């Protein structure tokens, strides 16, 4: 993809559905050129063409998800990186914001990163830090390790902080995930008693999925953006969870 196509994909992922005319105006190209860009992005499975518009896909691909709200995710990752001290061992779960955090921490050679994400491990192959990729069943759709072997590996590694992604949050359900196997891995992480930190843009709040990430008391901090409603923020604070709100 060229830089314009990256920007088009980010715009579609941010707005979910955008007309061809609006995209052409925003990117200062003709509608003919814009349609050619959309055709290429659709062939690569990155978005869907509909009559007169482009529609975002719900994708498990980390690189695709990273394009949604990218500037905010980068800001969240930069803030999260300031919470990690030199010499620490930290766990980083899969997900786009966590991948950006891993890139930040990878420049610090005294830090050790533990992850279940194949995507993160590959991105850090030339990094300065130590990387531990846990074993398990390779879940192709999410590019991460899951299952009983991954949970067994978690029992034998130790870390002071864990950065975790979520798919949803509602007060009555707590934090939730779409995928059962990934949720089981996260729950094994939460059970280890580290400082557990949720790293997520505010678009996930208000959604609910079938797999609970529990207990809520295991979460120490939430890092998110200023689109988080006051009600959600107050509910999290009432549970003893620190909430870091960032704005662009």
UniProtKB/TrEMBL annotation:
HTH deoR-type domain ranges (all copies): 1-56
The keyword Phosphoprotein is assigned to this record: no
Gene3D superfamilies: 3.40.50.1360
Pfam families according to UniProt: DeoRC, HTH_DeoR
InterPro entries given in the database record: Carb_Metab_HTH_regulators, DeoR-like_C, DeoR_HTH, NagB/RpiA_transferase-like, Tscrpt_reg_HTH_DeoR_CS, WH_DNA-bd_sf
Keywords from the named record: DNA-binding, Transcription, Transcription regulation
UniProt-listed NCBIfam families: trans_reg_YciT
Protein's recorded name: DeoR-like helix-turn-helix domain protein
Organism of derivation: Yersinia rohdei
